[in-house]
Amino acid sequence: MFQGKSFLKEVDFTKEQLLYLIDFAIHLKKLKANHIPHQYLTGKNLALIFEKASTRTRAAFTVAGQDLGAHVEFLGPLDIQLGKKESIADTAKVLGKMFDGLEFRGFKQEDVENLAQESGVPVWNGLTDAWHPTQMLADFMTMKEHFGSLKGLTLVYIGDGRNNVAHSLLVTGAILGVNVTIVSPIDLQPQKDIQQLAKKLALQSQVKLSIRCDLDAVEKADIIYTDVWVSMGEESQTSERIKQLLAYQVNKKLTEKITNKDFIFMHCLPSFHDLNTEIMKEIKWEYNLDELEVTDEIFTSEHSVVFQQAENRMHTIKAVMAATLGNLFIPKI
Ligand code: CP
Ligand code: NVA
Predict the structure, then answer these.
(1) Fewer Cβ within 10 Å of end Cβ, the chain: N or C?
(2) Same fold yes or no, 10-132+313-325 and 154-221+223-259+264-302
(3) Ligand nearest to the CA of 309
(4) Which residue, by CA, sits nearest to atom 4 of ligand 1?
(5) Is the peptide bond before 270 cis (omega within 30 degrees of 0)?
(6) Where are the domains of the chain?
């Protein structure tokens, strides 16, 4: 059911399969904490292809692969011919003959789909402009760890509603039965086709989805989630984004509207919550802003689970790789 399958977008797996991967990751987290080996991929070779920068995803795939007993090879944008001198299809055929599984982080969703089609081995999407599926496993695992169950939860995402993370949250919430509200200015709301897809999935799971532009929508949040205002590849739009999203910052004033005083704050990271990055120093110089999508006060508050979320990237990626490549016995789920 999992063996040999790729994970290119959330809808590739059913609700039951995604929930299984989350529970498997919780189990793998315990094994790791207790130093119990779990080398399901001994003798396997994995390639990690990155067109865009990454800290968490690269580190998570590397450590997860090594914990599983595999050899992991990083192929960065300056290392291979991909797309520049050799087509994705030709590269996929070559890599598929040498590696047992491929991770891809890049721009176009069609590239990761093409890689899966042509390589003949499992391909895991480590983020494209369209989706961030491995992030979703970690995020919903973190919610489950925190609240005990996903049932009845309401997630409010605030910020750029048409980026990969917002689209993935909307669709994954709809599959897994978590209510999702996206709060964004009209011009940054989720793409219509993604809204349609999520609505269709929500009919089955009976969750409420809503797309709004008013900040009062945060009132019912159990989870408040934000992401950077400018995603990788869209840097030329920084100035416009800051103007559009300044009112949508997650700060004390906004979180005071939330009724559930035990709400959690989530962010996929990296985050612009202080001046300790080169980019934020430039933003400070140009726009006189100290924080963007979230204030340091909220980011470092007791509500914040962002580093638990980051750690869970590793456990969930391990679960996906083991399930799709490790010849596990998994009864029908
Ligand atoms: N959240 C996430 O994907 O982080 P990286 O870009 O550092 O991999
Ligand atoms: N939306 C962000 C997510 C980074 C993990 C980006 O694509 O840059």
Answers:
(1) C
(2) yes
(3) 1
(4) 56
(5) yes
(6) 10-132+313-325, 154-221+223-259+264-302
Ligand 1 neighbours, Cβ below 6 Å, are 54-57, 127, 135, 268-270
Ligand 2 pocket residue status of 231, Cβ below 6 Å: yes
Tell if the pTM clears 0.85, that is, is over it.
yes
Helix, strand, or coil (residue 289): coil
CATH 3.40.50.1370 fits 154-221+223-259+264-302, yes or no: yes
Can you give the length of the chain in residues? Answer: 333
Question: Which ligand minimizes its atom distance to the CA of 131?
Answer: 2
Residue 143 carries which side chain, given as an amino acid letter? M
* Distance (Å) of CA 302 to CA 108, 220, 263, 287: 37, 19, 10, 29
User: Spelled out in words, what is the top-level CATH class assigned to the domain 10-132+313-325?
Assistant: alpha beta
